[in-house]
Amino acid sequence: MIAITITDFVMFPDLAGIIGSFRLRAAENPEIVHQDMELVFVELPKFTKSEGELATTLDRWLYFLKTAGKLDAVPKVLSVDPAVDHAMQIANKGALTSEELEDQERREMWIGMQKGMLVGEDEARRQGEARGKAEGKAEGKAEGKADTLLRLLCRRFKTVPPDVESRVRAVGSDQLDEWLDRFVDAHELADVFGIDQKH
Question: Is the pTM of this model over 0.85?
Answer without folding.
Answer: no
